[in-house]
Write a structure and sequence with these properties.
139 residues; elongated; alpha+beta; binds zinc ion
Length: 139
């Protein structure tokens, strides 16, 4: 068994800015030369998430609207009252979607559905330079 770690940077605009990172993850998997195992993708920080979606503008807009209903930007957040950084909505959104994903791979290929892409969503209220960690465990 082998464990390999990779990182890459994504420049985001914040406010639910959504990036397709599937190609990057598959690239690292190919570089690892592993055939079977699990690829874990994680974003450090409490205002961004990793999930999967069909990466097309309709589905992305729909997800943004759903998230706006779950944790609206224009309501009171105790976090903002306490810290004044105005991103209470971003912390709640990121907590709901989670910071990581585990994707099984076989014969060196991520076992994603045809219309299923891996996305990084940045919920913060400002542009960020995000580091994404990809840890690949397998043989
Ligand atoms: Zn904050």
């Amino acid at each position: 068994m082998s464990v390999q770690s990779f990182t890459f940077q994504v420049k985001t605009k914040g406010f639910s800015d959504t990036h397709n990172i599937t190609t990057k993850v598959q690239e690292f998997l190919s570089r690892s030369k592993l055939a079977i195992g699990i690829a874990a993708v994680f974003v450090p920080g409490s205002t961004a998430s990793i999930t999967t979606i069909e990466y097309e503008s309709g589905a992305i807009e729909d997800l943004k609207k759903a998230i706006e209903c779950l944790a609206p930007q224009n309501i009171h957040y105790d976090h903002d009252a306490r810290w004044g950084d105005g991103n209470g909505f971003a912390h709640v959104r990121a907590a709901l979607l989670g910071p990581s994903l585990s994707i099984p791979f076989k014969e060196g290929e991520l076992q994603l559905g045809t219309w299923q892409q891996i996305v990084l969503i940045d919920f913060d209220n400002r542009p960020r330079n995000r580091e994404v960690l990809v840890q690949i465990v397998g043989e």
